[in-house]
Amino acid sequence: MSLRRRVPFLRWSFLRLALGARNITRTGQIGDGREAAAVEYVLENARPGDVDDVLATIDRFAYEESFLINVGDEKGALLDAAVRRAAPTLALELGTYCGYSALRIARAAPDARVVSVELAPANADNARRIWAHAGVDDRVTCVVGTLGDGGATLDELADLYELAPGGLDFIFLDHDKDAYLSDLLSILDRGWLHPGSIVVADNVGLPGAPKYRAYMREQQGGRWQTVEHKTHAEYQTLVPDLVLESELLLT
Fold first, then answer.
1. Catalytic residue at 174?
2. What is the DSSP annotation of 186-222?
3. What span, in angstroms and rounded, lies between the C-alpha atoms of 64 and 53?
4. Domain spans in the chain, listed from the N-terminal domain onward
5. What is the pLDDT of residues 39-94, one digit of tens each?
6. Which candidate in 35, 177, 183, 241 is catalytic?
7. Which SUPFAM superfamilies does this entry report, sorted A to Z (predicted)?
8. Superfamily of domain 71-248
9. Is 123 labeled as catalytic in the residue annotation?
C-alpha cells in the first residue's frame, strides 16, 4: 500500500471530509459530490451483475479517487465474517450511505433479505443504483427514515416486512453514533431479535459511540456477549477504530 493510501492526511479528499463534517450530519453526504461520482464510477467501470467487482470498484474509487465513509475493505472483512456466523434470513442495516455495506451483507448471506434504513433520500437513490448494477436489488431494499422519529419508521418496517417476534437475525449499525444505543433498544422493545441474533457496530472507536460501548460492557455475559475488534478507520492503516460484534444471549 502506498504512503498516500496508508496516510489519509496526505489526501485532499480526506481533508475535505473534515471540512464537511457538519454537512454529513445534516445531509448524510460530504458535500462535494463524491457520492454521486462514486455511483457513476461504478456504473462505468464495474461489471454488471458482479457483486465482487462492484465492491472492488467502490474500494478502488475510495482509495484512488475520493475518500468514502462506508465501512471499507478492512472492517468489511469483519462484517462479512459476522454475517456468515449469523447466517441471516433477514438482516437490518442502519445507515445506507452508498450501499456498500448492504452489498457486502447480501454477498455474505446470499439467501437473506437485506433492509437498509437511511435518513438522506439522495443516499438511498445512490445505493439503489449501485444495488441494481450489482444485480441484488430484488433482495436489498432501502427505507428512507430514522428509528428516532417516534416509531413511524419502525412501524413501516414491521408492515413492509411482517417482522414477527424473533424475526431479525442480524443488525449492522453505521449511522448516527449517538443513536446506536437508543435505536438498538427500540428494536429490542419490539421483540424482533432472538437469542443468537448478532449486532455489529462500526466506528465505536472513531468518531466513537461511548454510550453504546458502555452498555455492551455492562451487559457482557448477561444479555449480550461482545467481542471488540481492534481495527482501523476506513481506507487507511494509520487511524485506529473499534468494531463491536455482539451476540444476544437473552431477550
1. yes
2. HHHHHT-EEEEEEEEES-IIIII-HHHHHHHHHTBTT
3. 16
4. 71-248
5. 999 999 999 999 999 999 999 999 999 999 999 999 999 999 999 999 999 999 99
6. 177
7. S-adenosyl-L-methionine-dependent methyltransferases
8. Vaccinia Virus protein VP39 (3.40.50.150)
9. no
